[in-house]
Specification:
By secondary structure, this protein is of the alpha+beta class. The protein has helices spanning 12-20, 26-39, 78-89, 105-118, and strands spanning 2-10, 43-44, 57-62, 69-75, 94-102.
Amino acid sequence: MSYYLIRCDYTASAWRELLSEKQVDTESRLAPVRNLARSYGGDFVDLVDENGKGGTVLGKFISFGAHDLIGIVRMPTPTAARSFAMVISSHEGVRGFEITPLLTFDEGIEAMQQGHECKGGYKVPGD
């Protein structure tokens, strides 16, 4: 199961609709996207992923930066992750959606070790 950073931007009309709702709670907002992720065998990674099955979302946050929402999902395959992104992006209320593969810290260390072993005599012009 791989991790992906997701970044989402709503349109003005989506924000207008959200602001017009009398009571908004976390579960009702997350349920549709969580169910979509689960249909791929994925999910939003909970801050603590107790069962380790399927895809997961590591929280979902409203941010102050360049994107309206960020989160971390786990998906079983890159194809499932890309399809998930396509479905989210296809909605009128979404202005932008990005999905970026992530490595765990252990995977990053492994990549560094592999790079050390494989670099051989590779040199970039100008080195």
